[in-house]
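Working notes for the structural subgroup meeting. M.R. asked for a predicted model of this chain before we commit to crystallization trials. I am recording the input and output together here so anyone reviewing the notebook later can reproduce the run.

Input as submitted:
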Amino acid sequence: MKTGLVLEGGAMRGLFSAGVTDVMMENGISFNCLVGVSAGAAFGCNYKSGQNGRAVRYNTRFAKDKRYCSTRSLIRTGDLFGAEFCYHTVPNKLDVFDREAFNNSSMEFYVVCTDCVTGLPVYKRLDLADDTCFEWIRASASMPLVSKPVELEGKKLLDGGMSDSIPLRFMIRGGFEKNVVILTQPRDFEKQPASLMPLMKLSLRKYPNLLAAMKNRHENYNRSRRLVFAEEKAGRAFVICPDEPLPIGRIEHDPDKMRNAYNIGRAIGERRLSELKEFLNT
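Returned structure, recorded in token form:
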């Protein structure tokens, strides 16, 4: 039976997911495939490389570094999160990503991006941890309004959450029969229409299909959540999410708040570990 792990985004709320997945790694839980969206991709790649603790470590270390995330970076480069620093300097020099372990892992790893021209999701399998791999992860996490489109394989790409925030259906189509889904919002959460649509209309005016995707994003997101819980009820999905809204912003510069979100994830991961093992028959 093929097993999958689905990690939604949520920017710094993704540290909750990192706490959960670190508990999984420490307990030897493996999957045939992982698909990550935005922060789910940026932090989830550490599962394939086996580097538990890395996501919270580098985020807290560089939380206040203007090269990492700052208005200055946005003004100078068009990216709130510094593209070169975050996706190349950090993994290559400052908190080294284990490329060899990633390359040798048998787990399939996909990231979800959004095609700016079509407004549709792009699912990219990444097997080799080279600089192009890091650019695909950057594209998946490039949030609208605060990021420039990333050009790869002739496409202009932005945040995967704009078109498929919780890609469980992608995993089902791929034949993965048991899926663990980590959400970064509580069970009773329901997404509302984007409050920044007037700015989106200005920023994305060159991409009408992308703008349409953003306009309908809340409906698609809530539909995806309904699928998640329906699959859970049917016994085909195991859902882990916070009990209440996480006390952290999408953009966060306070290392203590980052550690807190991470530790909430760890606590819930440990609390539900025996259930998870039973679900996966490990």
